[in-house]
Amino acid sequence: MQQDEMNRQTGTLNVTFQQKSTGLSLVIVLSAMLYYVVNMWPMRSTALATSTLPAGYGSLVLTTVALIVVAQIVLVTVLAIGAGSAAPPTEHEKMADLRAKRNAYFILVAGLMAAVVTVFLQELTPFCTANVAILAFAAAEIVRLAS
Predict the structure, then answer these.
(1) Quick one: which of 114, 107, 106, 105 has its CA closest to 133?
(2) Which of 40-49, 55-64, 77-86 has the least mean pLDDT?
(3) Would you kindly state where each structural domain of the chain is located, as residue ranges?
């Protein structure tokens, strides 16, 4: 029986520790980005009108990063304790991880190039540039985890 097949006796799905950890990380990053967008969106009108970063934007970015870091540490630790000893990744998992990193790197480079381009567009503000860069990092991480 393969790892990703259904265990017919118990009706559960056999999933490796790495797969659980990746899925958990994906949920954490998606949730944090949803938090960021929901809190950033009301600042948009002020930022576009004044061409400056709105008050509270820096703390929003730092809070989002801290949320991701703390949630990753706590939840992956709980997952590791619950799983006991984790088996080392298989060759297939290592190859999948390398492909995922390749895909994420492409998204990251494209997003950061877009952020650089926004610097030269006069209708876009530093707020737009910062958001493009942050969303590029988030999109790259989501692609890495989902690939």
Answers:
(1) 114
(2) 77-86
(3) 16-83+90-146
Among the listed residues 141, 137, 119, the one whose alpha carbon sits nearest the alpha carbon of residue 128: 119
Please state, in angstroms and rounded to a whole number, the distance separating the CA atoms of residues 6 and 105. Answer: 33
Burial of residue 68 (number of CB atoms within 10 Å: 0-12, 13-18, 19+): buried
Asked if 116 and 132 count as a contact pair (C-beta separation under 8 A), the reply is no
Distance CA 80, CA 86 (A): 7
Closest C-alpha among 134, 128, 137, 109 to residue 51: 128
Digit-coded pLDDT (tens) for 3-25:
445 555 666 677 777 888 888 99
d(CA 5, CA 23): 17
Per-residue burial over 9-33, b = 16 or more CB atoms within 10 Å of its CB, e = otherwise: eeeeeeebbbebbbebbeebbeebb
